[in-house]
Design goal:
This protein is α/β, with parallel strands linked by helices and about 270 residues long. It is built from 10 helices and 9 strands.
Length: about 270
Amino acid sequence: MSVLLDAARSMPLSLKSHSGSITVLVADADVMACRLLASGLRRYRQLRVFEFNLPAGDIMKRLSEAPPDILLVGTSFADGPLSGFALAREVRKNFPGIRIVVLLESSQRALVVEAFRSGAKGVFCRSDFEFKALWKCVSAVKHGQIWANSEQLHFVMETLAESAPLHLVNSKGVGLLTRREGEVVRQVVEGLSNREIAEKLKLSEHTVKNYLFHIFEKLGISSRVELVMYAVANIEKKVALPTLTPVSCEDPPAANRSRVRSSQAPASR
């Protein structure tokens, strides 16, 4: 059985998931923050939590030995102040089965957008240090949902609206969508409903639904939110990342939090 070492306690621990449990790896350059997060999450018996405060390259080696279900990753490591995003991209590329949650220092727009561009399925702001919320985040992401509050999703939508035209391609650079499908994606990104898309593109609502069905099938996704996140990960115009500053992350009221199920039916548009 493959084993990893808990960096905080130097004990051999297996990351193989037990039945019904969620295996979480907390990776961060800040030793104390790493331990605090892991300690808080261990209060939830459904979670098996491990922590590492290693360089990004070493974390990749550990993941290859025994990948967890969820990777909670900070934005900075010894490799650089924003190297966590590069690590997330490498994990997405090499371990697509691992779901990533990026731990942000603040909810600055550029950081939120870059997190999702790097392959995150959720973002969690450090100043929102409520372990119950973090546990809900981990559970939601494990079960195929996207975790972001309404403000963070708004940042993603704004970025897509300002970006260069979408050009979704496969690994060989071949376009995945037809011109018309691309037009439908653009309208979805702009937040239009099926009826509004139909009116704008002079199509029937039924035709729009058919386009969305084929788009979802081609891209291997199942919801409008996943489509938006897929698009933000493939936009041609990149968002410049700011220098990290000690900005507080004010989380919107619970009533405004958006936790969207990836399995939602495409018909509710």
